[in-house]
Write a structure and sequence with these properties.
The protein folds into 3 domains: 104 residues, Response regulator (Rossmann fold, 3-Layer(aba) Sandwich); 63 residues, Helix Hairpins (Orthogonal Bundle), CATH 1.10.287; 147 residues, Histidine kinase-like ATPase, C-terminal domain (Heat Shock Protein 90). It is 48% helix and 19% strand. The chain is built from 10 helices and 12 strands. A 5-stranded parallel sheet has the order 2-1-3-4-5, with helices on both faces. Strands 7-9-10-12-11 form a 5-stranded mixed sheet. The longest helix has 53 residues. About 4% of the residues have low confidence.
Length: 358
């Protein structure tokens, strides 16, 4: 990714651009030049500037009109514009601000002042970009949550309507009842994850850690996921230590971590394949692994998938809100542990949890 900031200089005098280029030589900016306001406006999408240095006194379109036209476009309203002017009267400077300028600098341009004002505008632009990213993320998150809640809710409504039909066979009745139960569990899991993530992020959740048998904990998690695995014709395999070994965890939170990892493994594994839960004791703690035979996680996404609402491989037929792994990471780190992901050869993914000693 290119982190170099782009500066667009709009000035009818090429010599003035040379002066700016010299004054900013040490800043590693990507500089662009436009000799007229019209040319600059026409090429904004090509330049994609982070800041504009705009001369006021230009033929044809003067700087104030250029500023007004740029700021009238919603795409560029947040783009900082620094007016470069020989005007000194307060009324003229007020007109620059009224035209939409964010700052101004007087000619002859001083290098220290120029660099300071550009730094200030870049800082404001970065803050705006971060806020815009958060707003877009929030919108995407709301859409994903609505989508992921709508699917199980639709299943509940349809199954409930079918149960009203007279003469429904016992087998069909049981099938629809099971679908309602599963859909309700999916909705509850999503809501619980949202609430717990919010508490973990705000540091308002105190873990209630107790010593528990690791083997028993894993067997319980596998038993709860078995029915879903059978529906997809997946073979659940356990490679667990002998009972009696203890780990210190918040049981409901840690169980949800295991549930999320196992559910993900089932989602992304093809039918008639295998999902494995491994656990072992180390001298420094305990290690757990969930191994699947799915499409895997690309190398460049192995950190970002643990961020909220980030998705590794989009699969249209699979519900993916991008929250489960973020929850897992926060929950494991709250236990002072780590969670990582790596390839499972020849195909699939291995998620590894390390918990330090009790």
């Amino acid at each position: 990714m290119n982190n170099q900031h782009s500066i667009l200089v709009i000035d009818d005098e090429p010599d003035n651009f040379d002066v700016v280029e010299t004054l900013l030589d040490s800043e590693n900016y990507e500089l662009h030049y436009a000799p007229t306001g019209k040319q600059a406006i026409d090429c904004l999408n090509s330049f994609q500037p982070d800041v504009i240095l705009l001369d006021v006194m230009m033929p044809d379109l003067d700087g104030m009109e250029v500023c007004r036209q740029i700021k009238s476009d919603p795409q560029w309203q947040a783009l900082p514009i620094i007016m470069v002017t020989a005007l000194t009267a307060k009324e003229d400077l007020a007109k620059c601000i009224a035209a939409g300028a964010d700052d101004f600098i007087s000619k002859p341009v001083n290098g220290v002042e120029l660099r300071a004002r550009i730094h200030s505008m870049l800082r404001i632009k970065q803050q705006y970009d971060k806020l815009q990213t958060l707003l877009n993320l929030r919108e995407d998150m709301v859409n994903m949550i609505v989508h992921d809640l709508r699917n199980p809710l639709t299943s509940i409504v349809i199954s409930n309507e079918i149960l009203r039909f007279p003469g429904l066979s016992p087998e069909k009745h049981q099938d629809k009842t099971d679908k309602i139960t599963l859909a309700a569990q999916q909705m509850q899991s999503l809501i619980d994850n949202l609430l717990v993530v919010a508490k973990l992020e705000s540091s308002k959740m105190d873990l209630n850690c107790i010593e528990v048998d690791l083997c028993a904990l894993c067997i319980s998690a596998l038993a709860d996921i078995e029915a879903i695995a059978l529906q997809k014709k997946l073979n659940l395999v356990s490679e667990l230590p002998d009972p009696g070994g203890m780990v210190k965890v918040d049981v409901p939170i840690f169980r949800r971590v295991l549930d999320n990892l196992l559910s993900n493994a089932i989602k992304f594994s093809p039918s008639n394949s295998q999902v494995t839960l491994k656990a072992e004791y180390l001298t420094t703690g305990a290690k757990l692994q969930v191994v699947d035979s799915g499409s895997g996680v690309p190398q460049n996404l192995r950190q970002s998938i643990f961020e909220k609402y980030e998705i590794g491989t989009r699969m249209p037929e699979v519900s993916q809100i991008g929250l489960g792994l973020a929850f897992c990471k926060m929950a494991i780190e709250a236990h002072h542990g780590t969670i990582t992901v790596e390839d499972h050869h020849p195909k699939g993914t291995i998620f590894t949890i390390f918990l330090p000693s009790v």
